[in-house]
Specification:
homodimer; 349 residues; alpha/beta; Dihydrodipicolinate Reductase, domain 2; 9-stranded mixed sheet; 12 helices; 15 strands; 26% strand; globular
């Protein structure tokens, strides 16, 4: 089997999570890195023990004929242009969520894709997080019957170990000309995607979004989604404990998932961090409860996503978070703000 | 100390929870029961080992000069008339939630109260449930800092042991001329009252309420409340597991409370039933978690409410769930349906 030759654009904090899955996959090879700061790319290549070509100019980077596939890890407002250019160069594209910033951009990507034979997907590590994979398997096998309520809780804490973002990250994230929202746009994407993955498409949205001075922390916020053609709701809560130390190897946030079905309930008790002293996966069926001690390292989701991308290229098979799925998630992300701003329930087309 | 002479009106299923607190309180004595069915009242008096006067006519019952106080356990649509008549007979009144069916009725009760020297409160057992009392103490002592998110989850299951309701209960509860709503009106009252008790008054409401054929089970439903003048939201989820056996000595429902503050999170893991194999109260402060093995028998809340009522009469002291608090909760209960019906956020005056 031919090794897939991968290029990475964007060598910021998140690359430490996205890249290891490619590094350890024997079916691919990272042949190039691109970053506006040459030293940053160089320092990553040392950290990862590889000797890729290093670019600071995206157009030069993407015109490398050897490159089969690209992982985009740049600021959201650059995504649509970089995705379109990559597809036009016949590269397979994986792009770290969020998809882009507007529905027009999403439409442009879709039009380009229709002319292309390349694979495209949004990198959504949550869908490959082992407790979420296991929960999905349990749901699909009927372990809790028909789900009627999914609740996701996101919590921001503080941590001494957590990843430090690039100095310029908070600049573009807080710039409303470049980013449609704060935490509920950027981090929220994970929860919307996971909700759609577990329950199906969303038809209605109601949300209260708090605006805070830093324009990224939007806690407390809360959303309710109605799942299309099913008697099922999704509620997502965003809270914060700024004075609470939160165990985490990565970012100092944590999540909790509760999926209630006609016959039982599944809990996923952690994700990014490790707040709770509970097994990562628990299932309650009334008089019986089962606990699963499975891999719950957050990076495993990123690794799974990288492997799935390479596999879908090698097997020419479909992959999660394609353009239609991602466009739907984008509509949810925008609808959350619209509902909060208009004080009305928003219907998703 | 003079024993408070108590009369009970309504001897249905719920009286088995409300009355034991009066039976075991040496500062009061149940001197009369009233029920439209004489045999039902008689059978309760045998069950409780007492020999009260038994009435089938409310007007005769309430005109008993000996009676100091009354506990109203009748259908909601009878409350306002019975409360007003009781106050006019100078009785202290405790009335099982909900307060009544309309804001006009609440206004009438308030007008009567203003002319009266009697005590009045809505019986809200949740406020006296030991894990909720402990959680409130922990919050007030600053154990989790300033709360910014409260989440309450209500779950309907099935149970072989659970209380059987009176045959006619589901008739009036399903009659929209007599009852303003289903599960989110009747059972929801507990959660709204608890939310206000823990967080403060509510200013805005957004809700999705499901209508089902039986007009009582309104799962799945979900609500978001904004707390007045605080950066704090309350989200309440109503789900069901109709095929799940739920351990419970009482009704086959259970609740879960999560209160997130700036420094930590409190969990109350059970209430009516006993779904989870977890300590009733848990507090997470990041690197430290503490579990409290305290009384979590649901009837303890009813007993606490009964004791508080007798104590407030004896000490002439204020009591929880007075007319203003209860009217606020009524506005929430009505606002939840209004928001769901109009697809708009409702502002509470």
């Amino acid at each position: 089997m031919k090794k897939i030759k991968v290029g990475i654009v964007g060598c910021g904090a998140i690359s430490q999570l996205n890249v290891p899955g490619y590094l350890e996959n024997s079916n691919c090879e990272i042949i190039s890195l691109c970053d506006t700061q040459h030293t940053r790319a160089e320092s990553r290549s040392q950290q990862w023990g590889i000797s890729p070509n290093i670019y600071t100019n995206f157009d030069e980077f993407i015109s490398d004929k050897e490159m089969d596939a690209i992982e985009i890890l740049t600021p959201t407002f650059l995504h649509s242009e970089q995705i379109v250019k990559s597809l036009n160069q016949n590269k397979h594209v994986s792009c770290q969520k969020p998809l882009c910033t507007t529905l027009d951009e999403a439409e442009k990507i879709k039009t380009t894709l229709n002319e292309s034979k390349s694979k495209f997907r949004i990198t959504e590590n949550y869908l490959y997080y082992p407790p979420i994979i296991k929960a999905k398997q349990l749901i699909d096998s009927g372990a809790i019957g028909e789900p009627n309520m999914i609740r996701i809780r996101h919590l921001r804490g503080k941590s001494s170990n957590s990843y430090r973002l690039e100095d310029d990250t908070n600049v573009w994230r807080r710039d409303s000309n470049k980013n449609p929202g704060g935490g509920l746009y950027d981090g929220g994407w994970h929860h919307y995607a996971t909700a759609v993955h577990l329950a199906g498409e969303i038809s209605k949205i109601s949300a209260f979004v708090s605006k805070n001075e830093d324009f990224i922390d939007e806690t407390p916020s809360s959303t309710i989604f109605e799942v299309k053609n099913k008697k099922c709701l999704v509620s997502i809560d965003y809270a914060s404990s700024p004075e609470m130390y939160l165990r985490s190897k990565y970012y100092s946030v944590d999540e909790f998932f509760e999926i209630i079905g006609s016959e039982g309930t599944i809990w996923i008790t952690r994700c990014t961090g490790e707040m709770l002293d509970l097994p990562p996966l628990m299932i309650f069926n009334g008089d019986k409860s089962t606990h699963y001690q499975i891999d719950s390292d957050w990076i495993s989701g990123f690794k799974g996503a990288a492997h799935a991308f390479i596999e879908s290229i090698n097997n020419d098979s479909p992959i999660d978070m394609n353009i239609d799925f991602s466009t739907h998630v984008l509509k949810i992300a925008l609808g959350v703000y619209e509902s909060s701003n208009t004080l009305k329930t928003v219907t998703i087309s």
